[in-house]
């Protein structure tokens, strides 16, 4: 059975998409630790990020970098933090989180509850700043 993330990529489950190319998909985390918390995934379902081929891994990192640039333009923050963690979804993913302090990366904190309208507004703001690179 396909992971929830593969079902999102396939359009079976709705998401707040912020960026996409032929190999990657980025969308808002529905249980964010901060406004603008984005998940970046390869479209090919691989459980463990280090099981990606070298080319896939490098391309995912470059795609995540460009999403982070858009995120930083859309959501005022000092930096965008990156984390690879999470055992609950068997699909490799990178968390991008707007940070004012290192504490903003604490996944043990209570998650935010944002309205669908606010989520859509954030997603649109990030998507409008995303620029594809010549490699995409």
Written account of the structure:
By secondary structure, the chain is an alpha+beta fold. It contains three helices and five strands. The chain is globular, with a radius of gyration of 14 Å.
Secondary-structure blueprint:
Elements: H1 4-9, E1 17-20, E2 24-28, E3 38-42, H2 54-74, E4 79-83, E5 94-99, H3 116-129
Antiparallel strand pairs: 1-2, 2-3, 3-5, 4-5
Helix pairs in contact: 2-3
Question: Main sheet?
Answer: 5 strands, antiparallel
Q: Describe the global form.
A: globular
Strand content: 15-25%
CA-based gyration radius = 14 Å
Q: What's the pLDDT, averaged over the residues?
A: 93
Helices and strands, in order, run as: HEEEHEEH
| Number of distinct beta strands | 5
| Largest sheet, spatial ordering of strands | 1-2-3-5-4
Provide the low-confidence segments as ranges. Answer: none
Number of helices: 3
Distance between the termini: 29 Å
Coarse structural class: alpha+beta
Amount of helix: 25-40%
Give a concise summary:
This protein is about 30% helix and about 20% strand.
Short descriptors:
about 140 residues; about 20% strand; 3 helices; alpha+beta
